[in-house]
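Service request form, structural biology core

Requester: graduate student, group of Dr. S.
Request type: structure prediction, single chain
Budget code: on file
Notes: please return the result as structure tokens.

Sequence provided:
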Amino acid sequence: MSSKSQAAQAGQALWAKMPKANAELFALTYGSLVTELVRDYEDPIEVNAQLDRIGHSIGVRCVDEFLSKADVAGMGLTTQCQNLRDTAEVVAKMGFKMFLGIQAEVGAFSQDQRCFSIYLQDNPLSTFVELPEDDPSGGEDLRRLKYSNLYCGVIRGALEQVNLKVDCNIVRDTLKGDELNEIRVELKEVLADGAGDDYKEE
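Core staff response, request fulfilled:
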């Protein structure tokens, strides 16, 4: 996008067109999913992987709806996302707003412009959630659980559909005492020709 404000306005326009779900019901349903995964797999690292896989499947499907609604609204994303910075703004300010109704921020670009962070002040997935303290008995430590790891999978799946292979990791989490939620995204590979020249390695 040509500016952050344009991306934010576009995100608000897309959000207005989406059917709304009850936020509390949404959070409780997701909490039930995570609880069931913890019971099934017991290992928090495997639960993180399962949340990422589920998110990836969601992201693959969401991107079609996102692009079609943006196209109908005349936003022309294919011509405006010419580099990773543009794409990051679209993901944060339009994607998160359209599907979750929250405004995310982008920053901390690496020197080579291949890594960036998405910051969430509000996280609708973690409403009503508290992670338990470390288990003194030596059992599985649920503090290693990345409760909102679904986001990482969604971002991976969505960007993969537009030929960008990325790694995503939650590096800060308000459930673990951080002041905000931070998702670190790293571009690993452009999967096909046709992306903007600024994506390609020197």
